[in-house]
Amino acid sequence: METSITSTELVDARVAPKGSLEQLSQQEIAKLLDSGQGGMYPLFRKCALAVLNSGSSIDDARVIFEKYKNFDLRIVRQAWGIKLEIRNAPAAAFVDGQMIRGIKEQLFAVLRDVVFISNEVMDGRFDLSSSASITNAVFHILRNARVLEHNMRPSLVVCWGGHSIHRHEYDYTKAVGYELGLRGLDVCTGCGPGAMKGPMKGATIGHSKQRVFNGRSLGITEPGIIAAEPPNPIVSQLVIMPDIEKRLEAFVRVGHGIVVFPGGVGTAEEVLYLLGILLDPANREIPFPVVFTGPADSAEYFQKIHEFIGRTLGSQAQSLYRILVNDPAGVGRAMVEGLESVREFRRRQSDSYSFNWLLKVPPEFQLPFEVSHRSMRALNLTLDGPVHARAADLRRAFSGIVAGNVKEYGVAAIEKHGPFELAGDPHIMGPLDDLLRSFIAQGRMKIAGAEYKPCYRLIA
Asked: Rounded to whole angstroms, how far apart are CA atoms 260 and 397?
């Protein structure tokens, strides 16, 4: 790898891939370098910069893109393959002039997924208006990334939680990850910092103590969130999904159980997505262990979430998870017990251990929600209809708030047109207002340490 230092913070380099991307077609290279509509360059640049910016404390995508506005990368064709020519990259991605190996692997994971999604998923091969076809696309992306371990026992625990949490909460996520690692369980997260990094770090130590040498730290992200939540350095397998809905489906398809740590609106979105799917009558018999957990000082967070779920979705939704406060070992034992039920169920049903084909994910949880002032105002936030459909619209509401908080296009829309408006039944809007106010009071809606200014307005 050739490198040169352009300043104390920027590096130029040429980096060669290893594996299946040593050769690219002329068409693939042209699309990668095309900045116009239909070209891959803007997406590739955004995701690559996020990976190279790993470890940054900045969670405002626009600040990152402005700081590295001169960042650029190009494909260099050589007789024996290709290289990436990178200019004005964050210096933290290098040590003594060499790109850190883990970051290099993640960089080429970005290239792999961007090329595959463009050529194989978005080109019409899959009918992305069909539920079964969307699930098939999710499977193919994961298989292409080689994260589906067909011969492994169920051992993958998905961990959700905030990327910007209190230090004692972060330490707690490490303690839980350690207990999972001691029991030979692997960790999958959204790949970013905070509650996404802590469990991986703890599990790595647990694996080391148990001499587990093939432990997995799987990170699943998507372009809209990757800049605000850049992949942490512990991620050993990185997958870029096309959008938030396919990212969420990937979590529930590959994961065998889920642990939820304290977070904010993004974590609430994930919880509502999961509960909405599990509330569908078609999934009633499918075992899926879910545990909400945090340190003692975070008990209020789960109390508020639990109350909100009860008031909007009912007691059946509350029965789908356990709350374990300040009990990392208990979480580990609960996951081992739950994963054994998953293994036995899939064995009896002849379902794959690596991809949960039997789980039904309705279209309202799969079709991308295009966040705008009009779409947010049109959400059906009432008590009408099936409870799982209600969860779907609540999930979309939280997805919109996430976009208004941290996603580049959402922040721009708020600045131009003002806060998103959410309207609905007082029996929904009241609990929603209570929950969002509790997030603000607990400091879970701050961005980069600034005082939080709501990107939404509730109308009952």
From this structure: 19
Q: Is the pLDDT of residue 323 over 90?
A: yes
What's the Rg (C-alpha) of the chain? 21
The sign of the dihedral angle between the CA atoms of 344, 345, 347, 353 is: negative
Instruction: Say yes or no: 60 and 189 in one domain.
Output: no
User: What whole-number distance in Å separates Cα of residue 433 and Cα of residue 420?
Assistant: 14
Q: Indicate whether 446 pLDDT > 80.
A: no
State the alpha helices, DSSP H only, in 152-298: 167-182, 198-209, 223-226, 244-254, 265-279
Using CA atoms, how far apart are residues 140 and 423, in angstroms rounded to an integer? 38
**329-347 confidence digits (pLDDT tens):** 999 999 999 999 999 999 9
The rounded distance, in Å, linking the Cα atoms of 371 and 257 is 29
Same domain flag for 343 and 380: no
**pLDDT tens-digit series, residues 350-391:** 999 999 999 999 999 999 999 999 999 999 999 988 999 999
CATH number of the domain enclosing 21: 3.30.1850.10
Distance of CA 153 to the CA centre of its chain: 23
Choosing from 310, 326, 349, the residue where a domain stops is 349
The mean per-residue pLDDT over the stretch 94-116 comes to 89
Other Cβ atoms less than 10 A from the Cβ of 421: the count is 14
Please check the confidence at residue 82 and state whether its pLDDT lies above 80.
no
CA-wise closest residue to 135 among 51, 253, 298, 39: 253
CA nearest to 271, candidates 412, 380, 161, 119: 161
